[in-house]
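We modelled the chain as a single entity of 125 amino acids. Its sequence is:
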Amino acid sequence: MSKADSERRKQPRTDVSLAVEIGAEGEKSLSVSSLNISAGGVYVRVPRFIEPLTKLSVSMVVPGPTPADEAATIQTEAIVVRTLPEVADASVTEYEIACAFLALDDEARDAINRYILTHRVQTPA
């Protein structure tokens, strides 16, 4: 990703593998891992195609900024804004989905931002 691409994001993000539980209404929840996170959303790898604009429940635990700090349990709703590959394909075993948080409260947003600020890899300018 170029510097111009990273600057268009509204929220800073960091690569992190967190256990995430996602579920669409009327479907069995999936236990997946995040690829990265920001206060705006989470990017995860899933074992099946999930259509963009699908509303999901999202639950995850974000570690405190240091091992001495308490972790934050976050439960919110999100909407799938991007799925890669873009179409369902029987030969594909994993998809990557970008989920935008819909109603993240201030406490959860602060917990994510504190984690990102202490774990973000700084790239040279």
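As a brief sanity check on the tokenised model: Residues 63 and 71 are 4 Å apart (CA to CA). The mean pLDDT is 89.
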